[in-house]
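Exam revision sheet. Question 4 asks you to relate a sequence to its structure. Input first:
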Amino acid sequence: MILLLDTSNPLCKLTLVNNSWHQENEWQADRTLAKGLLGYIDKTLYACDKTMADITALCVFEGPGSFTGLRIGITVMNTIADAKNIPIVGARGENWKDEAITKLISGKNEKIILPFYGSEPNITCARDTKKVTI
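Answer key, structure tokens:
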């Protein structure tokens, strides 16, 4: 079974694909993505009478999208792929799922996926809220 994940925006999308069926799910993660992603994956697998042991390959949406969402989702998927020693591929664009599955069918394993943000991240610095006057 192949697990596909898109965490590029607050509405996360998880798809399970097997030879004879596929199951698509959405989860409004917002600020709970890091805390709840693995639980959500487990809950979705359980609802389909599956476990992590049934996953044989992973596909992940690389971006563009939310800096934090992509970072969290891709890190979780890379970790699962490494721990289970299973193939992982990434893809972009509207047809990313089809492209990723085509990569898997051709035997590709990218080993590690890096996020594509579409632009430089907007990283802010902490404001100096305490001003000392001498």
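Marking note for examiners. The helical segments are 33-47, 67-84, 96-105.
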